[in-house]
Design brief:
The chain is α+β, with helices and mostly antiparallel strands and 265 residues long. It has helices at residues 2-59, 63-94, 107-124, 145-162, 216-222, 228-238, and strands spanning 103-106, 128-133, 140-143, 167-180, 183-194, 242-245, 253-263. The chain has two domains: 2-94, Signal transduction histidine kinase, dimerisation/phosphotransfer (DHp) domain (Helix Hairpins), CATH 1.10.287; 103-263, Histidine kinase-like ATPase, C-terminal domain (Heat Shock Protein 90), CATH 3.30.565.
């Protein structure tokens, strides 16, 4: 009798596992469809801008008008690039091809790269661009600078998109120094804050889930594929860190992540 009960229990367990697996496959399939739909929409607009601007610029004889059309092509290309980068990141993450590539870097050069990339766009929106890093971080570190920079860039892009007035602020602060065998690590917290529309409290729990945008009207108004924050979370965790949203009573969003940086001895 006990033998048959055990078999029945095993069958029920197997049935539950198959059901759960089917549900996960269904969710993955639906998520892929959502991604294809959003990406198709996001790609269409900049591609139209590139094609139209190129055709009109080619036909135009006046230098001033040519510059205007070429600016359309340039702006469309800039809008297209992060979409392609997100798709490549997502593909590498899902296929397990994302790797850590360590190199030496300093915060001075690191921040200069980020500032130079965004200062023009932020100024065009009349936003204050505030940045600072702990004086104790004026050293040389070893880590994947490119991925850290990519995470911050995605978060800044979100801040620019959702902030109409006020500021965007980037900070790096030292939390603790960790000695491990023959290495010294600095646990650094990076924070990207803005005075934008913010995130509702009930949506904070799933904001790092792929294809998530808190409300449908937000997608229609601001666009986006909904994978940026999910990619940030995966990259941070790949580097052994954590990412979270700081709860605040003030308007805006403050996203922070921590990573251990190896001191270059």
């Amino acid at each position: 009798m006990n033998k048959y009960i055990k078999i029945a229990n095993n069958l029920k367990k197997r049935e539950w596992e198959i059901k759960k697996s089917n549900e996960e496959l269904k969710k993955a399939y639906e998520a892929k469809n959502v991604l294809i739909s959003k990406v198709s929409h996001e790609l269409r607009t900049p591609l139209i801008g590139i094609i139209s601007g190129s055709e009109l610029g080619k036909k135009c004889e006046l230098a001033q008008e040519k510059d205007e059309y070429f600016n359309i092509v340039l702006d469309s290309g800039k809008r297209l690039l992060p979409i392609i980068e997100n798709l490549l990141n997502l593909s590498d993450i899902e296929n397990g091809n994302m790797r850590i590539n360590e190199n030496r870097f300093t915060f001075e050069v690191f921040f200069d790269k980020i500032i130079n990339k965004f200062v023009k766009e932020i100024k065009e929106k009349n936003l204050d661009f505030i940045f600072s890093y702990d004086s104790k971080l004026k050293k040389c570190f070893i880590s994947d600078e490119e991925k850290i920079c990519g995470i911050i860039e995605k978060l800044i892009n979100n801040s620019i998109k959702y902030t109409e007035k006020g500021f965007i602020k980037i900070e790096a602060s030292l939390l603790e120094i960790i000695e491990e065998e023959n290495n010294i690590y600095y646990k650094v917290i990076f924070s990207i804050a803005d005075s934008g529309i913010g995130i509702k409290t009930e949506n904070i729990g799933n904001v790092f889930e792929p294809f998530n945008q808190s409300e449908e009207y937000m997608t229609r108004r601001f666009g986006g594929t909904g994978v940026g924050l999910s990619i940030c979370k995966n990259l941070v965790e790949l580097m052994g860190g954590k990412i979270w949203i700081e709860k605040t009573n003030e308007k805006g969003t403050n996203i922070s992540f921590s990573i251990n940086l190896k001191l270059n001895l």
